[in-house]
Amino acid sequence: MANKFFSRAVPWLSLFILVMGPVRGICEEPESPSQVLEQIPSLIQSIRFQDELRFCGVKIPLENHEVKQRLEKEMLLALWNRPQVILWIKRGARYFPHIDAILAKENLPLDLRYVPVIESALRPHASSPAGAVGFWQFLKHTGRKYGLTINSRIDQRRNIFESTRAACQYIKKLNLEFGSYLLALSAYNMGEHGLKAEIESQDTRDYFSLYLSLETQRYIFKILAAKLILENPETYGFHLKHSDLYPVFSFSKLEFSSNKEIPLTLIAGAADVSFKIIKDMNPEIRGYSLGPGKSVVLVPQGREKGFKEKFTDLHKSWKAGQHLRFHVVKPGESLTGIAKQYNVSIASLLRLNNLTLKKVIHPGDRLKVRY
Q: 0.85 cut: is pTM over it?
């Protein structure tokens, strides 16, 4: 009975410790919950801001109680989700060196590194119900406007380098237009036309005086919370060793130029790595092959040695084994029926033509078939 009671009580004990602070002497076992939590400051302590806070050079007016309350809320919510913060820290070690280098080259504040933390938790495949994708959560039309390739083969919103460069150009433009990084990021979140309308309606350009959508009101403060925590992780009880962090994303570049498709399996084979590693390192590549034209593929460092010779041999063997023909779609035909006609799997037919099951085919379409 006592053990059953204790198992139920532990979550509430942990909650009490997190809010009020660690309780000493509860248990003498070296791995007890209280001893682990002794390194974690209470949530109350975590929102007692001691130092002046600036973001992109702008002083955050924490003397304004409404501003302080908004920051406290986002800090408490972020710190409550400690597993997520640990992932922020670990992924930050992987991607921040590259983001920081691009921000410095573009002469932008390094504080902007925390924007993709909130946008995507630094995940290349993050997506939103509205259709925003990638590290910086670009919508298709905005991404294309700022130079990103987005089509059925490539989606550079998932490329850390290209998407960060595009985000820099977009934020520069918004900052020039609105005269403030806080307003620029608000526009980044809600759209520039919507922000313009609110500024005109409310007759103020002071970010802290604007009444915006609840999502945008929280947006800046989420970024501020990420900045506070990630700049001082130990202060908030995140004691990670260097070995705990993900290694910096390192790679070698391989350039391709072809008038035909190149299967990624050939690239993986020539680099002596798995297909999965090629996909993971190049999340912008959709499907199973590179399209015609010029392409750049990242491989693990050192795997470029001897690559050209291996690839030439593999490509020659693969090409010799290829027997392709074109099938012209007739009225009433389906992808499943065409696959059965040629005795191939529907998956291979889709992959060969870079299609999905949702794709509608029409009479007259030309499909590649391997036989």
A: no
